[in-house]
Design brief:
Blueprint (H helix, E strand, L loop, with lengths): L2 E4 L16 H15 L29 E5 L4 E5 L4 E10 L27 H4 L5 E4 L10 H6 L6 E4 L1 H5 L1 H16 L1 E9 L7 E2 L4 E2 L3 E8 L5 E8 L11 E2 L1 H8 L9 H8 L9
Antiparallel strand pairs: 1-2, 2-3, 3-4, 4-7, 5-6, 7-10, 8-9, 10-11, 11-12
Cofactor: Mg(2+)
Enzyme class: hydrolase
InterPro entries: DNA/RNA_endonuclease_AS, DNA/RNA_non-sp_Endonuclease_sf, Endo_G_ENPP1-like_dom, ENPP1-3/EXOG-like_nuc-like, His-Me_finger_sf, Non-specific_endonuclease
Protein backbone atom coordinates (compact mmCIF):
# COMPACT_ATOMS: atom_id res chain seq x y z
CA UNK A 1 0.00 0.00 0.00
CA UNK A 2 1.56 3.30 -1.10
CA UNK A 3 0.48 6.67 0.27
CA UNK A 4 1.63 10.02 -1.08
CA UNK A 5 0.73 13.40 0.40
CA UNK A 6 -0.36 15.99 -2.14
CA UNK A 7 -1.23 19.61 -1.41
CA UNK A 8 -1.54 20.47 -5.08
CA UNK A 9 -4.00 18.92 -7.49
CA UNK A 10 -3.21 16.25 -10.04
CA UNK A 11 -5.23 15.82 -13.21
CA UNK A 12 -7.94 13.15 -13.24
CA UNK A 13 -9.43 11.23 -16.07
CA UNK A 14 -13.02 11.20 -14.81
CA UNK A 15 -15.73 13.42 -16.23
CA UNK A 16 -19.38 14.39 -16.36
CA UNK A 17 -21.95 15.01 -19.02
CA UNK A 18 -23.19 13.51 -22.25
CA UNK A 19 -22.42 15.06 -25.64
CA UNK A 20 -22.55 14.43 -29.37
CA UNK A 21 -18.89 14.56 -30.41
CA UNK A 22 -17.41 16.02 -33.57
CA UNK A 23 -14.62 14.17 -35.42
CA UNK A 24 -12.13 16.41 -33.64
CA UNK A 25 -13.50 15.45 -30.26
CA UNK A 26 -13.46 11.76 -31.20
CA UNK A 27 -9.80 12.03 -32.21
CA UNK A 28 -8.96 13.74 -28.93
CA UNK A 29 -10.88 11.10 -27.00
CA UNK A 30 -8.98 8.34 -28.80
CA UNK A 31 -5.73 9.98 -27.77
CA UNK A 32 -7.01 10.17 -24.21
CA UNK A 33 -7.87 6.47 -24.18
CA UNK A 34 -4.37 5.65 -25.40
CA UNK A 35 -2.85 7.82 -22.68
CA UNK A 36 -4.95 6.10 -20.02
CA UNK A 37 -3.75 2.70 -21.20
CA UNK A 38 -0.13 3.86 -20.94
CA UNK A 39 -0.28 4.57 -17.22
CA UNK A 40 3.08 4.86 -15.42
CA UNK A 41 4.19 2.05 -13.14
CA UNK A 42 3.91 4.19 -10.01
CA UNK A 43 0.11 4.09 -10.18
CA UNK A 44 0.14 0.50 -8.93
CA UNK A 45 -1.20 -0.94 -5.73
CA UNK A 46 0.78 -3.02 -3.30
CA UNK A 47 -0.39 -6.10 -5.18
CA UNK A 48 1.20 -4.76 -8.38
CA UNK A 49 -2.14 -4.34 -10.15
CA UNK A 50 -2.73 -1.08 -11.97
CA UNK A 51 -5.36 0.94 -10.14
CA UNK A 52 -8.65 0.79 -12.02
CA UNK A 53 -7.21 -1.73 -14.48
CA UNK A 54 -6.04 0.85 -17.02
CA UNK A 55 -4.36 3.73 -15.25
CA UNK A 56 -7.11 5.74 -13.59
CA UNK A 57 -5.67 9.19 -12.95
CA UNK A 58 -6.44 11.71 -10.24
CA UNK A 59 -8.75 14.67 -9.66
CA UNK A 60 -7.32 18.13 -9.14
CA UNK A 61 -8.24 19.31 -5.66
CA UNK A 62 -7.71 22.95 -4.62
CA UNK A 63 -4.23 23.78 -3.30
CA UNK A 64 -5.70 24.74 0.09
CA UNK A 65 -7.33 21.33 0.65
CA UNK A 66 -5.22 18.70 2.48
CA UNK A 67 -4.98 15.54 0.40
CA UNK A 68 -3.35 12.19 1.07
CA UNK A 69 -3.60 9.91 -1.95
CA UNK A 70 -4.40 6.28 -1.08
CA UNK A 71 -4.22 3.68 -3.84
CA UNK A 72 -6.41 0.68 -3.11
CA UNK A 73 -7.10 -2.57 -4.89
CA UNK A 74 -10.29 -1.23 -6.44
CA UNK A 75 -10.18 2.56 -6.12
CA UNK A 76 -8.08 5.65 -5.48
CA UNK A 77 -9.02 8.16 -2.80
CA UNK A 78 -7.90 11.62 -1.78
CA UNK A 79 -8.17 11.75 2.02
CA UNK A 80 -8.61 14.98 3.98
CA UNK A 81 -7.07 14.76 7.47
CA UNK A 82 -8.93 17.90 8.60
CA UNK A 83 -12.43 16.65 7.86
CA UNK A 84 -11.67 12.91 8.40
CA UNK A 85 -13.38 12.36 5.03
CA UNK A 86 -12.31 11.55 1.50
CA UNK A 87 -12.15 14.60 -0.77
CA UNK A 88 -13.01 12.26 -3.62
CA UNK A 89 -12.91 8.56 -4.51
CA UNK A 90 -12.32 7.38 -8.09
CA UNK A 91 -12.57 3.95 -9.69
CA UNK A 92 -12.97 2.05 -12.95
CA UNK A 93 -16.04 -0.17 -13.04
CA UNK A 94 -16.26 -2.94 -15.62
CA UNK A 95 -19.05 -5.39 -16.38
CA UNK A 96 -16.90 -8.14 -14.85
CA UNK A 97 -16.50 -6.25 -11.59
CA UNK A 98 -20.25 -6.32 -11.05
CA UNK A 99 -20.47 -10.12 -11.39
CA UNK A 100 -17.87 -11.29 -8.88
CA UNK A 101 -18.55 -13.89 -6.20
CA UNK A 102 -17.41 -11.88 -3.18
CA UNK A 103 -19.96 -10.13 -0.98
CA UNK A 104 -20.12 -8.05 2.17
CA UNK A 105 -20.90 -10.92 4.55
CA UNK A 106 -18.30 -10.95 7.31
CA UNK A 107 -16.95 -7.53 6.34
CA UNK A 108 -16.60 -4.93 9.10
CA UNK A 109 -16.10 -1.19 8.84
CA UNK A 110 -12.51 -0.49 9.86
CA UNK A 111 -10.25 2.34 10.94
CA UNK A 112 -7.67 3.11 8.25
CA UNK A 113 -4.23 2.98 9.83
CA UNK A 114 -2.61 4.32 6.65
CA UNK A 115 -3.67 7.86 7.60
CA UNK A 116 -2.54 9.87 10.64
CA UNK A 117 -4.53 10.09 13.86
CA UNK A 118 -6.98 11.42 14.78
CA UNK A 119 -9.04 9.49 12.24
CA UNK A 120 -12.55 8.12 11.97
CA UNK A 121 -13.52 4.87 13.62
CA UNK A 122 -16.71 2.89 14.11
CA UNK A 123 -17.52 4.55 17.45
CA UNK A 124 -17.76 7.95 15.76
CA UNK A 125 -20.85 6.72 13.91
CA UNK A 126 -22.45 4.89 16.83
CA UNK A 127 -25.81 6.52 17.71
CA UNK A 128 -24.91 9.48 15.48
CA UNK A 129 -28.07 9.28 13.38
CA UNK A 130 -25.97 8.83 10.22
CA UNK A 131 -25.19 5.78 8.13
CA UNK A 132 -21.66 4.77 7.21
CA UNK A 133 -22.05 5.77 3.58
CA UNK A 134 -19.75 4.14 1.03
CA UNK A 135 -18.30 6.35 -1.68
CA UNK A 136 -16.94 3.45 -3.75
CA UNK A 137 -19.72 0.95 -2.99
CA UNK A 138 -19.15 -2.59 -1.77
CA UNK A 139 -21.26 -3.79 -4.69
CA UNK A 140 -18.64 -2.49 -7.14
CA UNK A 141 -15.93 -4.64 -5.51
CA UNK A 142 -17.36 -8.14 -5.84
CA UNK A 143 -14.46 -9.14 -8.08
CA UNK A 144 -11.92 -9.28 -5.21
CA UNK A 145 -12.17 -10.12 -1.53
CA UNK A 146 -9.39 -7.64 -0.74
CA UNK A 147 -11.09 -4.91 -2.78
CA UNK A 148 -14.31 -5.66 -0.91
CA UNK A 149 -12.52 -5.44 2.44
CA UNK A 150 -10.86 -2.14 1.56
CA UNK A 151 -14.18 -0.63 0.55
CA UNK A 152 -15.13 -0.76 4.26
CA UNK A 153 -12.19 1.40 5.37
CA UNK A 154 -13.35 4.71 6.83
CA UNK A 155 -11.27 6.64 4.28
CA UNK A 156 -13.95 5.49 1.80
CA UNK A 157 -16.86 6.38 4.09
CA UNK A 158 -18.87 9.55 4.88
CA UNK A 159 -21.69 10.27 7.35
CA UNK A 160 -24.78 9.93 5.20
CA UNK A 161 -28.46 10.44 5.90
CA UNK A 162 -30.01 6.96 6.26
CA UNK A 163 -32.82 7.76 3.85
CA UNK A 164 -30.36 8.93 1.20
CA UNK A 165 -27.91 6.06 1.70
CA UNK A 166 -30.58 3.38 1.47
CA UNK A 167 -32.71 5.20 -1.09
CA UNK A 168 -31.67 7.50 -3.91
CA UNK A 169 -27.90 7.06 -3.40
CA UNK A 170 -28.31 3.28 -3.51
CA UNK A 171 -30.43 3.64 -6.65
CA UNK A 172 -27.62 5.63 -8.27
CA UNK A 173 -25.08 2.93 -7.36
CA UNK A 174 -27.32 0.31 -8.97
CA UNK A 175 -27.68 2.49 -12.07
CA UNK A 176 -23.90 2.75 -12.40
CA UNK A 177 -23.58 -1.03 -12.28
CA UNK A 178 -26.25 -1.34 -14.97
CA UNK A 179 -24.38 1.18 -17.13
CA UNK A 180 -21.12 -0.74 -16.67
CA UNK A 181 -22.82 -3.96 -17.77
CA UNK A 182 -24.46 -2.30 -20.76
CA UNK A 183 -21.48 -0.26 -21.92
CA UNK A 184 -18.61 -2.53 -20.92
CA UNK A 185 -16.94 -0.15 -18.49
CA UNK A 186 -17.26 3.30 -16.94
CA UNK A 187 -15.20 5.64 -14.77
CA UNK A 188 -16.69 7.08 -11.58
CA UNK A 189 -15.62 9.81 -9.17
CA UNK A 190 -17.68 10.79 -6.13
CA UNK A 191 -17.29 12.47 -2.79
CA UNK A 192 -18.70 14.86 -0.20
CA UNK A 193 -19.61 18.51 -0.71
CA UNK A 194 -18.85 20.94 2.12
CA UNK A 195 -20.26 24.44 1.86
CA UNK A 196 -18.45 27.34 3.49
CA UNK A 197 -18.99 27.89 7.19
CA UNK A 198 -19.12 25.70 10.28
CA UNK A 199 -20.12 22.08 9.93
CA UNK A 200 -21.73 19.55 12.20
CA UNK A 201 -19.39 16.79 13.36
CA UNK A 202 -19.94 13.35 14.87
CA UNK A 203 -17.97 11.32 17.39
CA UNK A 204 -14.94 12.07 19.49
CA UNK A 205 -12.81 12.37 16.35
CA UNK A 206 -15.13 15.09 15.01
CA UNK A 207 -15.88 13.56 11.63
CA UNK A 208 -17.44 16.29 9.49
CA UNK A 209 -20.99 15.73 8.21
CA UNK A 210 -21.21 16.66 4.49
CA UNK A 211 -23.84 19.05 3.20
CA UNK A 212 -24.22 17.07 -0.02
CA UNK A 213 -22.51 14.55 -2.30
CA UNK A 214 -21.41 14.57 -5.93
CA UNK A 215 -20.95 11.77 -8.42
CA UNK A 216 -19.60 12.00 -11.97
CA UNK A 217 -19.62 9.13 -14.44
CA UNK A 218 -17.72 8.75 -17.73
CA UNK A 219 -17.99 6.25 -20.58
CA UNK A 220 -15.24 6.32 -23.22
CA UNK A 221 -16.69 3.58 -25.43
CA UNK A 222 -17.96 4.98 -28.73
CA UNK A 223 -18.74 8.66 -28.46
CA UNK A 224 -17.42 9.82 -25.08
CA UNK A 225 -20.20 10.79 -22.75
CA UNK A 226 -20.43 11.71 -19.11
CA UNK A 227 -22.93 12.92 -16.56
CA UNK A 228 -22.88 14.47 -13.11
CA UNK A 229 -25.15 14.30 -10.07
CA UNK A 230 -25.47 16.27 -6.83
CA UNK A 231 -27.40 14.89 -3.84
CA UNK A 232 -28.19 16.88 -0.71
CA UNK A 233 -27.41 14.91 2.44
CA UNK A 234 -31.02 14.18 3.27
CA UNK A 235 -33.77 11.77 2.32
CA UNK A 236 -35.00 13.05 -1.03
CA UNK A 237 -36.94 10.15 -2.60
CA UNK A 238 -36.81 11.84 -5.99
CA UNK A 239 -36.30 10.77 -9.59
CA UNK A 240 -32.70 10.35 -10.74
CA UNK A 241 -33.13 13.13 -13.27
CA UNK A 242 -33.73 15.65 -10.48
CA UNK A 243 -30.10 15.26 -9.38
CA UNK A 244 -28.46 15.76 -12.79
CA UNK A 245 -25.99 18.65 -13.10
CA UNK A 246 -23.40 19.76 -15.61
CA UNK A 247 -19.74 19.32 -14.87
CA UNK A 248 -19.36 23.09 -14.82
CA UNK A 249 -21.77 23.19 -11.90
CA UNK A 250 -20.15 20.26 -10.08
CA UNK A 251 -16.75 21.92 -10.44
CA UNK A 252 -18.10 25.28 -9.30
CA UNK A 253 -19.62 23.79 -6.17
CA UNK A 254 -16.78 21.43 -5.23
CA UNK A 255 -13.75 23.40 -6.41
CA UNK A 256 -12.44 20.17 -7.98
CA UNK A 257 -11.21 20.14 -11.58
CA UNK A 258 -12.15 16.86 -13.26
CA UNK A 259 -10.58 17.80 -16.61
CA UNK A 260 -7.06 19.05 -16.00
CA UNK A 261 -5.53 16.60 -18.50
CA UNK A 262 -8.34 16.53 -21.06
CA UNK A 263 -7.81 18.22 -24.47
CA UNK A 264 -9.54 21.58 -24.60
CA UNK A 265 -12.01 20.55 -27.32
CA UNK A 266 -13.18 17.54 -25.31
CA UNK A 267 -13.43 19.64 -22.17
CA UNK A 268 -15.54 22.28 -23.88
CA UNK A 269 -17.81 19.64 -25.38
CA UNK A 270 -18.51 17.71 -22.21
CA UNK A 271 -18.81 20.50 -19.64
CA UNK A 272 -21.74 22.44 -20.98
CA UNK A 273 -24.68 20.01 -20.90
CA UNK A 274 -26.03 16.85 -19.28
CA UNK A 275 -28.70 14.47 -20.57
CA UNK A 276 -29.81 11.39 -18.63
CA UNK A 277 -31.53 10.05 -21.76
CA UNK A 278 -28.11 9.34 -23.25
CA UNK A 279 -27.52 6.81 -20.48
CA UNK A 280 -30.92 5.13 -20.10
Amino acid sequence: MRTVAFYTGIALFALTLSVSCSDSVRRSAAMLRAAANAAPADTRTESGQTVGGDGLLFAATPDTVPSIILEREGYVTSYNKRTRLPNWVAWHLTAGHTKGSHNRRGMDFAEDEDVPAPRADDWDYYNSGYDRGHMCPAGDNKWSREAMRQSFLFTNICPQDPGLNRGDWNEMENACRSWAREKGDIYIVCGPILHKGRHKTIGKHKVVVPDAFFKVVLCMNGNPKAIGFIYKNRDGNRAKGDYVNTVDEVERITGIDFFASIPDDVERAVESSADLDDWE
